[in-house]
Amino acid sequence: GAGNVLLVSRQPDASVGGDAAWDEGVGVQGVRGRLAESRFDLDSENGNGNGNGNGNEAAEMTKNGAQRSSSAPTPAPGMVVFDLDGTLWYPEMYMLGGGPPFKHDAKSGDVIDSYGTKVELIGASRAVLYALKTDEKFKNTRVGIASKTDEPRWAQECMRKITVGDGITMKDCIDFEAIYYGNKQTHLKDLARQGNIPLEETIFYDNEMGNIRSVSKIGVQSVYTPDGITKSNWEKSLKEYAQTQKAAK
């Protein structure tokens, strides 16, 4: 059967600590306005997250959240799959005038292209990737990339050089990749084969509704992320996944 489509409103969710303070920007402009939140603490109700500081501080904040996320709903998904452009980072590759070589920015953990444009992890992407790599809760969860980016070689360099904390790169957090043109149903089926993980045990995140509608038709829980990965859509998707799995038993 078809998978669930999770639509998370752009309206700030007052019940979720970190998101409540975000402005109500829409689409790319909303993403740009929220870049500072990429270093937030997953348990930011305590108020110790901020948008400044170096990679070590970012790692400490995400580590705090990762340690507490063990209280999150179970079971954890077999695989989580992310789009790249506009979901994990911004700008999108096709928007870059400079391209490679990309230089790692030690302060933020992001990269800067040859024209001086920074490619930044957006929203909660850094914290989520760090948690997937380090949190015991996700030890059996695999991470996939499903992308139709225009510049796959540039994307590969960015993934090798962007860090999420403690010197961990994006590449370190990723188990499987499907980066090519085509219907994203093909990407998800490819990743399922690579990981030997059922589509029904996968969550897919993308900022384009066409991809969400398509992938949901093959039984994958699909999460629309118009402003990238946020604390709200991440936590809601895990909760919905756990509820769906329990109901299926």
List keywords for this structure.
249 residues; alpha/beta; six-stranded parallel beta sheet; 8 helices; 16% strand
Describe this structure in words.
With 249 residues, this protein is of the alpha/beta class. It is built from 8 helices and 12 strands. The protein has helices spanning 27-33, 55-68, 125-134, 152-161, 170-173, 184-195, 209-216, 231-248; strands at residues 5-7, 79-82, 89-90, 103-104, 111-112, 118-121, 142-147, 163-165, 168-169, 176-179, 202-206, 221-224. The strands form 3 sheets. The protein has a 6-stranded parallel sheet, sandwiched between helices. It has a 4-stranded antiparallel sheet with strand order 3-6-5-4, covered by helices on one side. Strand 4 (103-104) and strand 5 (111-112) form a beta hairpin. Helix 2 (55-68) packs across helix 3. It starts with a strand and ends with a helix.
In short:
The chain is 33% helix and 16% strand. By secondary structure, the chain is of the alpha/beta class.
Spans of at least 5 consecutive residues whose pLDDT stays below 50 are 8-29, 33-41, 43-59, 61-71
Number of strands: 12
Write down the overall geometry.
globular
The percent range for helix content is 25-40%
Radius of gyration: 17 Å
What share of residues are in beta strands?
A: 15-25%
The secondary structure category is alpha/beta
Q: What's the rounded overall pLDDT mean?
A: 81
Order of helices and strands: EHHEEEEEHEHEEHEHEHEH
SS field, number of helical segments: 8
| Spatial separation of the terminal alpha carbons | 16 Å
Largest sheet: 6 strands, parallel
State the strand order across the main sheet: 1-12-11-2-7-10
